[in-house]
UniProtKB/TrEMBL annotation:
SUPFAM superfamilies: P-loop containing nucleoside triphosphate hydrolases. Interacts with the RNAP. Has a higher affinity for the core RNAP than for the holoenzyme. Its ATPase activity is stimulated by binding to RNAP. Gene3D superfamilies: 2.30.30.140, 2.30.30.930, 3.30.360.80, 6.10.140.1500, 6.10.140.2230, P-loop containing nucleotide triphosphate hydrolases, Tandem AAA-ATPase domain. Keywords: Activator, ATP-binding, DNA-binding, Helicase, Hydrolase, Nucleotide-binding, Transcription, Transcription regulation. Pfam families: Helicase_C, RapA_C, SNF2-rel_dom, Tudor_1_RapA, Tudor_RapA. It comes from the Bacteria. InterPro entries: DEXDc_RapA (IPR057342), Helicase_ATP-bd (IPR014001), Helicase_C-like (IPR001650), Helicase_RapA (IPR023949), P-loop_NTPase (IPR027417), RapA_C (IPR022737), SNF2-like_sf (IPR038718), SNF2/RAD54-like_C (IPR049730). The gene is rapA. It comes from Gilvimarinus gilvus. Residues 165-354 form the Helicase ATP-binding domain. This is RNA polymerase-associated protein RapA.
């Protein structure tokens, strides 16, 4: 600022460090002034010539605070020896004299009016950026795909549909049961991401098998920018301070001990990840986890939660305990019936104990879906393609509908079909039917049947001739040994030297040089000895993966296998070790043995047959062959292949078929020599019937409910259009420039960002000290792990929007304008108002406010130019003004500016009522419709939880109340003078 006459006791505010509060002149020399900032406990010495300080001078009518805390209103201002003496009145109208040095120092000039009049004037382009940030943030949060588009994933309709359906619910409780490898982890991540971004959830606990901890940690960070805290015993102890030597001493004295001093490690972070065994092996940790507050509990590979009428497994009990306290629950499993229908039912009961209380009723209900599915099919078949067509439904359809819907709903649909659109009426009828009947709300399952682009699965059966003696001898062993015959060979010495499968495997690996091969066997011990032998004896680049290894070593092994240049050719994994893992870069799977469980078989094949698999999946299966004594492995392979076709296709009926035929199958397998052919025929017929039934009944309904192609594709289209839009790079460039963040543009779609030397804030949100390489292109992000995918949902972008819109950045400015119709000297004030609704984020009230940012551009006569001179157009023609000139200008025209600002407030005030009324109407319609729907549904479908309805009613009441309290606040003011 220009040179001032500093006098002891005068009050100033720092232009560059306004957060120091009100400063007071402590010492003045001929060249410098020392200013104390009592609120911050700081002192600064400035050169008198160039001090970045603004004199604080209050006017009559303004509110001030005395240092003793008393609030006052100024009635008179006098100047004595260079210092101001205010005369002011308190709330009781008592007059008091306040010398300026007695003013409260804790004043923060953050409101635009205060900042403007105390000389805190920002750059004009920062004002523009602020306005734009507010508008863009509003647009981004209003999009229906908000929270789904920012993840580093391909936009797949079936995943987006499920995620948007589930994430829009309050505290969703669902079983995500897509077939193996269709992306349940991604769906869960999308749901969590959307719930977090929209404020519906804040805290989440993810529980996974040991083997998947690291994969989840990495996937959540890499794909969703969600940073989880991984809890194991060591980490918990460290959080509790138990790893410090002094811990014991600290609590030596009983009187020192206060239970509240104990930290609950599960409360140390918002997003926590731990393994299932961690909480089942440590009851006190389970208690701590249950004592913490969770909006969402996610359990991966939930088929491990075994339950039957006699006994619930430890795993089931632990999750049951947590499921009672967590509001939302997502269970993930591709094979919900792997442990039988009882466990499946029990898991549904975890989700909704009121609905699933009777196993028998549940089993009966499962069978009754066919007529409903037929009706839905029937309606879809008469649905015209053209939305313009109106007409009647046939009597037959109306009669069928009457079985499921009340007369009022049917009449509504008939009227709509006749007057509006037959297509629309049928769409809505189908939606209501799916909504009201079936397990649709709790169980969501996409199958490969409904999704294209999956690889072919090719079975390569490799008969291995077994000597008669061995064949007969092996046939005498229990079935378990026959299916895992290394136990038999072990009796002769090192089993791998005798078992002919090993020699076969070695040859296959050599023949497939250059191809990655995943070998899965049942036991960890078998995996280890096999790998050791192949690596040490035959120089095969291999690695091993089993449940006995610690997490780090498992992840190392998986990474070594995944390394395309120098990695292992072969990974030998045990059953448990390989579950849930992503190995789709390999096209060759060796089943070293066969599990006696179709779902386990599907889990094995699913390691390769997953989204992202670019080639065909070759399944290599060695089976002992001996014509005289047919072997168990060979018979089981036949049953899987010819009985239920489980190798070459995912097999939805595998578990049911196994349950139905286990009594016949198991003795036949065990009996060396018994003929399996009649059972193959019987199983195949059964499988055919069951598949047909499922396709017509439950599975069809599930499929229709889990992905409605039209809306799902519309979501993809909208998100793709957003990806194409170049508003984000253009906006970000301006923002980064304004904050002095360094960036280099590699190309239009990828940049390298670095913290700049003179950044306005340090650290910059979402920008690591080491910098960040970013891309705006989804495809590039998908193929380049080293680049961050920048979208409106990325922490750096959201952080930038917050940094600008939630601080005083750019909330005051002065500029000049040359526009011939305006006479030089004409003054305009551009005022931006925001409809401010201080409500919890979870209510998402901004979604209902169509125009929360209002802009007025007013001259001293009260004429508003906002329409004629839009924000963008105005920004292009404004000229910047040097700060001292701007401060001078504001000082001189303070009264005039104040009066125009008052007028802008009067001009926008009536808009508040309109905005609030519109928002209240929308929120009542939106939530009211949902309440009505749920109440309707509850009459026919016990899937609806009463808390869901209560929650919505409460949410509606709260939303209306908060909207009533919404107020318009001046967000930024710019003074513009025509020249
Ligand atoms: N939308 C997507 N974009 C990119 N990759 C995806 C997408 N969906 C899934 N994938 C990839 O496909 C693989 C399978 O996904 P995911 O692990 O989520 O499947 P899953 O259904 O949980 O599998 P499993 O049944 O084995 O547990 C993973 O490698 C995942 O990263």
């Amino acid at each position: 600022m220009s040179q001032q006459d500093f006098t002891l006791g005068q009050r100033y505010v720092s232009d560059t460090e306004p957060e120091l509060g009100l400063g007071v002149v402590l010492q003045v020399s001929t060249t410098t002034a020392e200013i104390g900032f009592p609120a911050a406990g700081e002192r600064r010495t400035y050169s008198i010539k160039q001090a970045p300080l603004s004199r604080v001078r209050y006017n009559i009518g303004e509110k001030i605070k005395h240092q003793d805390g008393q609030a006052l209103t100024i009635t008179h201002v006098m100047e004595q020896s260079g210092c101001l003496l205010y005369e002011a009145v308190d709330a009781d109208d008592q007059t008091r004299a306040v010398p300026e040095f007695e003013l409260d120092s804790f004043v923060q000039f953050s409101k635009p009016r205060e900042r403007l009049f105390s000389g805190q004037i920002d750059k004009s382009n920062h004002f523009s950026l602020r306005y734009r940030s507010r508008v863009l943030r509003h647009h981004s949060e209003q999009r229906s795909g908000f929270g789904l588009g920012g993840a580093r994933v391909s936009l797949l309709p079936h995943q987006l549909y499920i995620a948007s359906q589930v994430a829009s619910r309050y505290a969703p409780r669902v079983l995500l049961a897509d077939e193996v490898g269709l992306g349940k982890t991604i769906e869960a991540g999308l749901i969590l991401h959307r719930q977090l971004l929209t404020g519906r959830a804040h805290r989440a606990l993810v529980i996974v098998p040991d083997t998947l901890m690291h994969q989840w940690l990495v996937e959540m960070l890499r794909r969703f920018n969600l940073s989880f805290t991984l809890l194991d015993e060591a980490r918990c102890q460290s959080l509790e301070g138990k790893d410090c030597d002094d811990f014991v001493d600290e609590f030596d004295e009983p009187e020192d001990f206060n239970p509240e001093d104990i930290i609950n490690p599960f409360e140390s972070a918002q997003l926590v990840l731990c393994s299932l065994s961690f909480i089942t092996d440590n009851p006190e940790r389970l208690e701590q986890a249950s004592a913490a507050d969770w909006d969402l509990l996610l359990v991966d590979e939930a088929h491990h939660l075994e339950w039957n009428r006699e006994q619930a497994s430890l795993e089931y009990q632990a999750i049951e305990q947590l499921a009672r306290v967590a509001r939302g629950l997502l269970l993930l499993t591709a094979t919900p019936e792997q442990l039988g229908v009882e466990s499946h039912f029990a898991r549904l009961r975890l989700l909704d104990p009121d609905r699933y209380y009777d196993l028998e009723a549940f089993i009966a209900e499962q069978k009754s879906y066919q007529p409903l599915s037929e009706l839905v099919e029937h309606l879809n078949s008469v649905r015209p393609e053209d939305a313009e067509v109106t007409g009647d439904l046939f009597d037959a359809q109306i009669n069928e509908l009457a079985e499921y819907l009340d007369q009022a709903s049917i009449d509504r649909a008939l009227a709509q079909a006749k007057t509006q659109s037959l297509q629309l009426a049928i769409d809505q009828l189908v939606e209501v039917l799916l909504d009201r009947h079936g397990t649709g709300r709790v169980l969501l399952r996409n199958t490969r049947h409904g999704i294209s682009g999956f690889p072919e699965r090719i079975l390569h059966l490799n008969p291995i001739e077994l000597a008669d003696d061995d064949a007969k001898a092996l046939g005498q062993y229990p079935l378990e040994v026959q299916l895992k015959p290394e136990g038999y060979w072990a009796e002769q010495g090192d089993w791998w030297l005798f078992d002919p499968r090993v020699e076969w495997l070695k040859s296959l690996i050599k023949a497939k040089r250059g191809h990655k091969i995943l070998v899965i066997c049942a036991d960890g011990d078998t995996a280890q000895s096999l790998e050791l032998y192949l690596r040490l004896r035959h120089g095969i680049a291999s690695t091993v993966f089993h449940e006995g290894m610690n997490l780090i070593n498992r992840d190392r092994a998986a990474a070594y296998f995944a390394d395309m240049e120098e990695g292992a050719q072969v990974l030998i994994a045990s059953e448990i070790g390989s579950e849930g893992r992503n190995f789709q870069f390999s096209q060759d799977l060796v089943l070293f043995d066969l599990p006696l469980n179709p779902d386990l078989l599907e889990q094995r094949i699913g390691r390769l047959d997953r989204i992202g698999q670019a080639g065909s999946v070759n399944i290599h299966l060695p089976v002992y062959h001996n014509a005289a004594a047919p072997q168990a492995q060979a018979k089981l392979a036949d049953w899987y292949h010819h009985g239920i076709n489980a190798f070459e296709h995912t097999c939805a009926i595998g578990q049911s078929a196994f349950t139905a035929f286990a009594d016949k199958l198991v003795p036949l397998l065990a009996d060396c020599g018994a003929d399996i052919n009649p059972l193959l025929k019987e199983t195949a017929d059964y499988a055919q019937t069951l598949n047909d039934e499922l396709q017509a009944g439950r599975d069809k309904l599930l499929e229709l409910n889990s992905c409605r192609p039209g809306p799902a594709q519309a979501m993809v289209d909208a998100l793709e259009a957003l990806d194409e839009d170049d508003t984000l790079p253009e906006y970000l460039m301006r923002a980064l420039d304004s904050f002095n963040v360094d960036y280099e543009r590699h190309s239009d779609i990828s940049w390298v960002l670095h913290p700049g030397e003179h950044m306005r804030v340090d650290p910059y949100p979402g920008l690591p000290e080491s910098g960040l390489t970013v891309t705006f292109d989804r495809d590039v992000a998908l193929s380049r792990d080293d680049m961050s995918f920048l979208s409106w949902e990325h922490p750096l972008v959201r952080g930038t929007l917050e940094l600008i819109a939630d601080t005083e950045f750019g909330n005051t400015a002065v500029a000049t304008l040359k526009l011939p119709p305006l006479k030089p000297g004409t003054m305009l004030v551009e005022a931006v108002y925001c409809l401010y609704t201080p409500a919890p984020a979870s209510l998402q009230l901004s979604r209902y406010i169509s125009q929360p940012v209002m802009r007025v551009l007013m001259d001293t006569n009260g004429k508003d130019f906002a329409q004629v001179l839009g924000a963008d157009k105005l920004n292009q023609i404004l000229q910047k003004v040097a700060r001292p000139t701007a401060q001078e200008l504001v000082r001189h025209s303070r009264e005039q500016i104040g009066a125009v600002l008052d007028n802008t407030e009067l001009a926008v005030a009536p808009l508040r009522a309109g905005q609030v009324a519109e928002a209240k109407h929308k929120v009542s319609e939106d939530i009211g419709r949902e309440i009505e729907r749920l109440q309707d549904l509850a009459k026919v479908n016990p899937n609806i939880r009463s808390e869901e309805i209560d929650y919505l009613s409460d949410r509606l009441a709260q939303s209306l109340e908060y909207l009533d309290n919404a107020s318009l606040k001046l967000d930024a003011a710019r003074v513009i003078v025509a020249v």
